[in-house]
């Protein structure tokens, strides 16, 4: 009997070291791969549906066309810095300073101000009791954030159907 | 000076159980928090928009994402699909998009067109011409994706839709 007890005692002394090693490795892996979930938003937009399909169909309602042009590119700065440090020309990313000027043209109206653009397109939205679609025509040098701002303004002016036009690099 | 009598063997018999418990709890915590469905979202600085709808994808549903970095490098599921150093080589992207279009649910109004949206994520200073190139690929025969979503970041306190 005493022999049996000895064997049992020996078996309980299982070597934990490899398990702890593996566990720690797993822990480090999960800690490293952890990227805190950031809440993202999205802006809905459309592409012209009828490209190359049927050109015969006439446009029922005239669209509100928003032309977006770069007038002044603006100074490039280093991102993620508290004070403005000019871009060194090598760093992977940059941001534009407040001297960047974007001109928005809707029909005869030209503005540099997004608020003004909003009032203007909000006035133009309803024609004959029907909501008009809008198109955004971004020109050369326009960045993604410029477009996102216009799209945001158009959505706030309650436009529901916004399409993108122009794929060539026009000035 | 009792040091000589100190037996190193006894110190080795430290009780490991609470430590292992804690480590396992930590592992479970990190496993739960790591959301694998977010893996196809590249690390980009998105522009801010107030009127964006919150992006809450259904993890079970197929959702195509195209990431474009500041130089125009297109990445989908951590794989490069377009290198700006090789201009106009959009074949790989177009093939991928036509695969994507086939997997999409058909549109309610026109069943010949795909009805799901393609999420485009870019850095805030990505030139829009790169996005336009992707849009151009979307218009090709056999792709014809016409619904888009542009990813943006939302302010801390999102303004309610007016």
Q: What can you tell me about this protein's structure?
A:
The complex is a heterodimer of chains A (171) and B (162). In chain A, helix 4 (144-156) links the parallel strand 9 (134-138) and strand 10 (162-164). Mean pLDDT of chain A is 80; it is low at 51-56. In chain A, helix 3 packs across helix 4 (144-156). Chain A has four helices and ten strands, in the order H-H-E-E-E-E-E-E-H-E-E-E-H-E. Chain A is α/β, with parallel strands linked by helices and 171 residues long. Chain A starts with a helix and ends in a 7-residue tail after the last strand. Chain A has helices at residues 2-12, 17-33, 114-124, 144-156, and strands at 40-46, 64-72, 76-77, 95-96, 101-106, 109-111, 126-127, 130-131, 134-138, 162-164. Chain B has a five-stranded mixed sheet with strand order 4-3-2-5-6, covered by helices on one side. Chain B is built from four helices and six strands, in the order ααββββαβαβ. In chain B, helix 4 links the parallel strand 5 and strand 6 (147-153). Chain B has 162 residues and is α/β, with parallel strands linked by helices. Chain B is elongated, with a radius of gyration of 25 Å. The chains are: A alpha/beta (171), B alpha/beta (162). Chains A and B meet through helix 2, strand 1, strand 4 and helix 4 of A and helix 2, strand 1, strand 5, helix 4 and strand 6 of B.
């Amino acid at each position: 009997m005493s022999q049996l007890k000895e064997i049992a005692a020996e078996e309980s002394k299982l070597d934990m070291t490899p398990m702890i090693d593996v566990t720690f490795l797993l822990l480090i892996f999960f800690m490293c791969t952890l990227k805190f979930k950031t809440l993202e938003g999205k802006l809905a937009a459309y592409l012209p549906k009828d490209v190359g399909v049927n050109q015969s169909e006439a446009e029922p309602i005239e669209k509100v066309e928003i032309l977006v042009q770069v007038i002044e590119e603006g100074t490039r700065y280093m991102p993620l810095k508290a004070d403005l440090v000019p871009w060194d020309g090598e760093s992977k990313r940059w941001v534009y300073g407040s001297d960047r000027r974007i001109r928005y043209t809707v029909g005869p109206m030209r503005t540099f101000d997004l608020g003004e653009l909003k009032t203007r397109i909000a006035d133009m939205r309803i024609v004959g009791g029907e909501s008009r679609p809008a198109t955004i025509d971004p020109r050369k040098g326009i960045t993604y954030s410029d477009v996102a701002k216009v799209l945001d303004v158009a959505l706030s002016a309650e436009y529901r159907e916004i399409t993108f036009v122009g794929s060539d690099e026009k000035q | 000076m009792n040091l000589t009598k100190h037996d190193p063997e006894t110190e080795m018999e430290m009780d490991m159980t609470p430590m292992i418990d804690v480590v396992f709890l930590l592992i479970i915590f990190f496993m739960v928090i790591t959301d694998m469905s977010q893996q196809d979202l590249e690390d980009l600085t998105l522009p801010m928009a107030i009127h964006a709808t919150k992006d809450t994808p259904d993890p079970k549903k197929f959702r195509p994402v195209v990431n474009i970095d500041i130089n125009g490098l297109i990445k989908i599921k951590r794989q490069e699909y377009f290198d700006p150093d090789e201009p106009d080589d959009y074949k790989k992207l177009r093939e991928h998009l036509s695969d994507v279009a086939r997997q999409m649910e058909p549109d309610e109004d026109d069943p010949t067109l795909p009805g799901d949206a393609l999420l485009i994520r870019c850095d805030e200073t990505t030139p829009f011409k790169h996005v336009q190139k992707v849009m151009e690929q979307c218009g090709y025969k056999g792709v014809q994706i016409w619904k888009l979503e542009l990813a943006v970041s939302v302010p801390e306190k999102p303004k309610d839709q007016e």
